[in-house]
Design brief:
single chain; mainly alpha
Length: 184
């Protein structure tokens, strides 16, 4: 092995380590937080997932993502990044559409106590996707319906998170759909 190739390998390794240092820091922070999450197991009710389950799952997925990123950077090797002379222009922002989306998020959060999660989330998905440009009504309604049902099962059955049921008739509507979907 010549001295120049040994020097090139050393530079290559140094370059690689420089590119992954942020990913390694995130991985180590996730590993530390995972060790802290083990102390939450003492409060786990019998027969349930317990308070440490979701933080641990999230941290494991974060660590897996870090390892995948390190693998991607390793595969890139020493390829030099060729910068374009002219950066691609970002598409123009439709300010009125952006403001409408922000207002929709705010109003759906505010209205969730009155309408309940079920109806507020369904309406949010319908309006948000129509604002973003989805034109097909059947797709819009089906995605909103199944997305809401999926979130209901996730939050109510898996995470055991009580969701707002609404007030008045909306509470009755939520209870009806919870029974229909075997959530209660």
């Amino acid at each position: 092995m010549s001295a120049s190739s040994a020097l090139a390998q050393k530079r290559s390794l140094k370059n690689f380590l420089g590119r992954i240092k942020g990913v390694i820091l995130i991985f180590l922070a996730a590993l530390y937080l995972y060790s802290l999450a083990n102390s939450l197991e003492a409060f786990s009710p019998p027969g349930q997932l317990g308070p440490a389950f979701w933080p641990k799952v999230s941290l494991l997925l974060l660590m897996a993502g870090c390892l995948i990123k390190v693998g991607e950077l390793w595969r890139e090797g020493n390829q030099k990044i060729v910068l374009e002379e002219k950066a691609p222009l970002l598409p123009p922002v439709n300010v009125s559409r952006l403001i409408t989306m922000i207002c929709l998020v705010i109003f759906s959060v505010i209205g969730m106590d009155f309408l309940g999660f079920l109806l507020a989330n369904f309406l949010f998905l319908v309006f948000f996707m129509s604002i973003t440009g989805l034109k097909k009504k059947v797709s819009l309604l089906l995605i909103s319906l199944f997305g809401t049902i999926l979130l209901l099962y996730l939050f109510v059955k898996i995470v055991y998170l009580p969701l707002p049921r609404g007030q008045g008739i909306f509470n009755d509507l939520t209870i009806y759909f919870y029974r229909l979907l075997h959530l209660i």
